[in-house]
Amino acid sequence: MYERMYEQKRFSEAGQYVDQMLYSFLKHQKIYASLKDCMRVMKEGGMYEVMEQAVFHIDRGVADTDAGVLREALSGIAAAYPAEKIQTANELMLRVEERGGEFEHSVNLLLQDADVWKRSCYRLQAEKKQRHVETVLCIIFSTFLCGAVLYALNWAGALFPSNGTFDIFSYPIVQLTSTILIIFHLFVFYKSSKNLTADWLSERQVCDEKLVLSGYETVMHYDPDRERKKSILFSAPFFTAAAAGMILEKTLPAVVCLGLAVFLLFQHRIGYKLAKDTVRRELYVRFPQWLMDLALLMQSNNVYVSLRKSRENAAELFASQLDELLRRIEEKPDDVESYTAFFGEFEIPEITSCMQMLYAVAENGNGDVDAQVEHLIRRIHEMQEQIQEASGEHAKFKMDMVFSYPMAAACAKMAVDMTFGMVVMLAMLGSMQLGG
């Protein structure tokens, strides 16, 4: 419970930091003054301490790296509270202080985005808490049910006359299954509590970047004909072994070899699909982040310049695609396919729709930047809600699985106990007949 309260407090502090810093930055237009304002509002807690360290670093005025004093100071806050919204807000404030330009609308967009983030996270945590309570009740009920079955068997066994007192609880197999059930229920309770107290700021499990980049390379350089020939070559020995096994009437080895042969024959398709799905999942998370950065850049730049500048902070996954996008725009600026080909191999409708919107903005010029960016932000929020829903469904699925474990274990134990009890009673009945 205390761990959950701690994580909730950290999340609350992170949300308060984003809101207060952005509001203060609107007023002062300086990071240092905004930090001071924020510290006056948040007078204690972990966030206050890291902000105090950031202010001390700025006051010291000596940069430890080439990043600069301000960036180093804010990076300490982002490291202590690893929320993407904090990183985005920090980047906006740094960009404005370093380069200047209009930023009021960008701040309002970030405040709206942070509000969506906080609401969705609180909703997910409430659902997880409810599921945890249901899991605990399920553990209690299943334990009571197993105990009731044992007492019923013990009562039924006592009806049979025997030389001694019948006690089903004295049998080692009953004691063993009961011990296993208790340990398993404790494990389920721990697992459910762990899901409930997971880090609110790092709710999403980030994919291994090397795995994502490897999957991207696999999809981009995929040659169906070449891969099919390799699969045929790999599967041929196992098909031969399966045929030999059938001829020699070695059924089990033949079936195993046939299964391996079929798998190897289609391994190129399976590998391609897995690689594509891995990259698609990552794009659903990374693309809205990149699009938000692009929307902020479009406040003071045209589409082409914004795309070029967005490459500086974009994930490595976007590097080659952005280079190709810029090259296509330079060669064919009036062709919509120059935009829609962006990650086109992965067939994500939301990306295609956003790129069509960017093309329309580029064609119409920067006449009404606010309205154009509003459309982009609306698309970003739609994608983020889809991500939050998918993340929430995944978290709820994990909780549902944990919820089903106690009943499954209880059913298994009751099956063992009832089978054993029936065997014992039949043995007692048989001994009675022999004695009679």
Structure description:
The chain has 2 domains: 2-100; 103-436, no CATH class. The protein contains 16 helices and no strands. The two termini are 62 Å apart. The chain has 436 residues and is mainly α.
Low-confidence stretches: none
Number of strands: 0
SSE series:
HHHHHHHHHHHHHHHH
Radius of gyration: 31 Å
Into which percent range does the helicity of residues fall? over 70%
Supply the helix-strand structural class: mainly alpha
Question: What is the average of the pLDDT values?
Answer: 81
Counting DSSP H or I runs of 4 or more residues, the number of helices is 16
| Percent range for β-strand residues | under 5%
Structural domain count: 2
Distance between the termini: 62 Å
Outline the biggest β-sheet.
Answer: none
Query: What overall form do the CA principal axes indicate?
Result: flat
Note the topology.
Elements: H1 2-28, H2 31-41, H3 46-60, H4 69-80, H5 84-99, H6 104-158, H7 172-196, H8 209-220, H9 224-247, H10 251-265, H11 267-297, H12 303-310, H13 316-331, H14 337-340, H15 349-364, H16 369-435
Helix pairs in contact: 1-2, 1-5, 1-6, 2-3, 3-4, 4-5, 5-6, 6-7, 6-16, 7-16, 8-11, 9-10, 11-12, 11-16, 15-16
What attributes does this structure have?
436 residues; mainly alpha; 16 helices; 2 domains
